[in-house]
Design brief:
Layout: E1 2-5, E2 9-15, H1 20-30, E3 36-54, E4 59-65, E5 69-81, E6 84-94, E7 100-120, E8 125-128, E9 137-140
Length: 141
Amino acid sequence: MIFGFEERVVFFRFEDGEDFIHTLVQTLKENNLDSLVVISGIGMLKDFEIGWYNLSKRQYEKEMISVPHELIHISGNVSLKSDFPFPHLHVALAGPSRSAVGGHLFGGTVCNTTELFAVRTGDLKLFRDASGAATPLEFRK
């Protein structure tokens, strides 16, 4: 992981083989970053798990994909949940056929590299209640 930030902009570059979510959370924790808006990301993931929230069942329907895919879009936020940084990320990824898949990103392994940019929210602190899987984002000033 290569990581850097200035007053508002945060940059992450993940290395081949890193656990994307685990490495992100560890870096956020080590640098006291818990309120961010993810604005851009490119790279590749493999062995990733994405999901779609089924409202009637009130749970995520998940799919594991092992084939490396290009990360063509990522967005979301990082908030505080149970005293830990919680990344809520949505992705679009394209595989060898260049067909896209997407949804909520639960995890994945970096393939080659992944680059991510985020902005800090300043005095606006983002948080989520830890009571469930799909809890709404809240904020404090």
